[in-house]
Amino acid sequence: MRRTSDHPIPGAAPFTALVLGALVVLGAVACEPGEPPPQPAEEDAATIQERVAANEGLARQYTDAYNDRDVATLEEILADDIEVGGEATTRSEFLTLVQGYWEAFPDLRFEDPRILAGEDHAVVHVTFHATGAGEFVGHDIDGREVRASEMILFTMADGQIREYTYEWDELGFWAQLGVIDVSPIEP
């Protein structure tokens, strides 16, 4: 048996004893001896499940509204001040960006959205397919097809999307549009 003075970290044994003692005392306060510790109330679990379901529904509303070009629904579910890709912006500025994509790619759709929701977040994986029409940020994209995937992390609060964090195949997107060359490098 190791003595306190033999402990490899000086002072750790008394601290460990103090923490364990506190846990025993707290446990004794929380329940009577021989009784199991209290479980969370069922209504708490139900509330969490409701919030998760609501967040999944909110993420689905976003993808459906995006595909349907439903600006009214997007205005309703996006917060006035939203963070997009780590940058503070307004709902209006974000919708202007979205509408720019819709104009450049009239058939742009999120295909087969897969959603995983939590208490205050939802992750959405989509593949989008689109055909360019005219110019996009100074590049002729007319008739060029693009297919890319995107992962979106929504942070929700008070029934609205507060943050929109994303990762997408931007390199593949621009390469398919012929804007950049991603040919293999010759040795």
Could you please describe the fold and organization of this structure?
It is a single chain. It is elongated and about 75 Å long. Residues 1-29 have low confidence and may be disordered. A six-stranded mixed β-sheet has the order 2-1-8-7-4-3. It has 187 residues and is an alpha+beta fold. 40% of the residues lie in helices and 30% in strands. The protein has five helices and eight strands; from the N terminus they run H-H-H-E-E-H-E-E-E-E-E-E-H. Helix 2 packs antiparallel against helix 3. It has a single domain (42-176), classed as Nuclear Transport Factor 2, Chain: A (Roll).
List keywords for this structure.
Nuclear Transport Factor 2, Chain: A; 8 strands; 30% strand; single chain; 40% helix; alpha+beta; elongated; six-stranded mixed sheet; two-stranded antiparallel sheet; 5 helices; disordered N terminus
Please provide a brief summary of the model:
The chain is of the alpha+beta class and 187 residues long. The protein has helices at 12-30, 42-68, 71-77, 91-104, 170-176, and strands spanning 78-84, 87-90, 109-117, 121-131, 135-136, 139-140, 145-157, 160-168.
Please outline the helices and strands.
Blueprint: H1 12-30, H2 42-68, H3 71-77, E1 78-84, E2 87-90, H4 91-104, E3 109-117, E4 121-131, E5 135-136, E6 139-140, E7 145-157, E8 160-168, H5 170-176
Parallel strand pairs: 1-8
Antiparallel strand pairs: 1-2, 3-4, 4-7, 5-6, 7-8
Helix pairs in contact: 2-3
